[in-house]
Amino acid sequence: MSCAVANPPVEVRVIESFDDLPDEIAQVLVDCKFTDLHHTLDWFRLLAATALEPGGLLRIYWVAPSGQPLLCVPCLFTSASPPQRLAALSNFYTPLFGPVGNHGVTPDNVHRWVQHVTSERPRWDIIDLQPLDPTTAFFRLLLEEFRRAGWWVDSYFCFGNWYLEVAARTFADYWVGLSSRMRNTISRAQRRLERMPGFQLAIVTAPGPDLDAAINAYQTVYACSWKQPEPFPHFIPALCRLAAERGWLRLGVIHLDQQPVAAQLWLCDGQTASIVKLAHDQSLVKLGAGSVLTAALMQYVMDIDRIRIVDYLIGDDAYKREWMSHRRERCGFIAFNPRTIRGVAGAIHHFGGKIWRGLAPLHRPDAPVAHPSTRPSDPPVA
């Protein structure tokens, strides 16, 4: 789709490839202090290069008023069929969406961006951005500005997010706070593994031959696990290499007799350790290698990295609450254009479904509800 904009605001620009970002804009986005590595320019470039659905086309907006913070919102759309839906550059690998660097989120910048998006031609029928943190200024401003533009807006539940507040604790402090059942189970599993031939536990953090071997080991374990094959097979290896270059990588692998039996991919940005992928050989599940490896990585990020948060990212899997201390929710923002037939049809389907199910009123950002287009069929991240 080629959008001709009627009287576009001077400060808003749109491109269809990260390669087309002007050098000065790219440098600002690289240099800005990020609050979550999933908001970095590196992350969005990686998604665009390795994990786009067939037919997915980028639409990257930036708002750069003179002398003001830069706002960049990476989006995508699918040209194959109606409705014309503008979505976040995100997928099932994305635990949290936001502007690049979470930078430039001011009322004026978001107003300019919304004004631009709602004036594009052909008109968008639906704007759908997820997953978002509903407590942020970006989420609140989206609701306010699209409603002000006359669109029908709502929020919806995406998934639960379990995390651990580490504060200044060491791993020893954390360990004594776990249930006695967990401590005993992990200790027994570790002693059992250490007595087995060729036991080796390694955590790889940097580029080099060890990284290549660890990626191969991860892929071997993943193929023997309970998980479905990766829909984008190049994404995880590329993420490991990018993370190693940036100093984020914590890739743990357990070998027995030179065969990998468990692997976990964590990312550490200095303040937060994110648990991205877990896998173990399903035929050896009774060994407990996965739990032993989780404990080892916990000890590494607490005692060596001195992180403040461990984040289990996506989903309410029962095992996560045994390791974590808190839960929050990630939500989606959706807006329907009342000036297009498909926008009205989408709104009738969305809000009519909520009324039919007897759910929340038209707009309750403090209590988002399930949306039929979200993640039930997506493969799990952890």
Automatic annotation (TrEMBL):
It holds the Pfam family Acetyltransf_6. InterPro entries: Acyl_CoA_acyltransferase, BioF2-like_GNAT_dom. Residues 180-321 form the BioF2-like acetyltransferase domain. This is BioF2-like acetyltransferase domain-containing protein. It comes from the Bacteria. Transmembrane segments: none annotated. The lineage of its organism: Bacteria, Pseudomonadati, Pseudomonadota, Gammaproteobacteria, Candidatus Competibacteraceae.
